[in-house]
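can u pls check wat happens w/ UFG
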Amino acid sequence: MNILVTGGAGYIGSHMVRYILRHGLRPVILDNLVYGHKESIPPKVKFYRGDIADQKLVTKIIRKEKINAVMHFSAYAFVGESVLNPRKYYENNFSKTQKLLNVLLDNNLTHFIFSSTCATYGAPDVKKISEKLPQNPINPYGFTKLAVEKMLADYSQAYGLRYAALRYFNAAGADDDGVIGEAHAPETHLIPLALQSILQPARQLKIFGADYPTPDGTCVRDYVHVYDLAAAHLQALDHIMRNKTSDCFNLGSENGYSVREIISACEKVSGLKVNCQDAERRAGDPAYLVADSGKAKKILNWRAQYDLEKIIATAWQWEQKRRY
Ligand code: UFG
């Protein structure tokens, strides 16, 4: 099977590419390298540098590479930036995705796995977020992802598209061999920043808010390893192909960890101190986001395999060795 991976040079996409290879399938990458890293592309994988909205290029790839399914990772994902510059997010995450989908349908390509997010739920006041909860995003990033989900549902009804929308909680960790890992520019995520503050103590980690209504006052999140996310993609693809259906799934470990607990775990794994300080809240951060992944367990037979310590161990290995 030939799988087109858009954003295959990005953080989650590059792990997906390796996971596909390890499962004996053939990934083909389309990435414009705005945020992706050429260094993360395995030499034997066919790579097209270009835009998902370039309809001529996408048509060429589909035909030449005999693509059977698409996994769509390419998107902008900085929540704060999406508030300041929503135009960039609606253009890239929504409008360009529509152009991509139209070309797929024009070429009778109807299997599509979409990287969605728990940010589509907003800030629900529940212990665990299931797919049954209403989706009420609180920032433009979440709205763009929800808008694509709505488009997918309509396209599926009208044109027979089969899709899975995978709502990731906090993607984290890296390849076990330390060759690829999380490398955003700028980096905004907690685990890489905590580990970087260990390696470069001048880069102090700010704890964004210590007065949330959580047990230790810091925000609680559900961290899930990138290879657990990758596994869910193949399982979801198998599900939509085999059962000729479309579906959505929450992907998380179902365990919540506070910012302080993440810092302690980074210190335990590395044996070194995180240089951190309490700071103001970051705008738009919900206090508590933890997945109910019961549906993915039941229907996909998926569950997160990496526990927090293993997630951080792979991220720590990457931070010590990284070359990009
Ligand atoms: N945090 C800090 N200091 C930092 C960075 C983060 O205290 O320097 C805190 C945040 O305030 C938050 C937690 O650590 O409470 C996790 O923050 P991340 O930035 O690592 O992740 P987010 O939960 O903000 O974002 C993730 C995904 C987004 C997605 C979002 C949904 O990265 O793509 O979940 O809420 F939209």
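The two ends are 30 Å apart (CA to CA).
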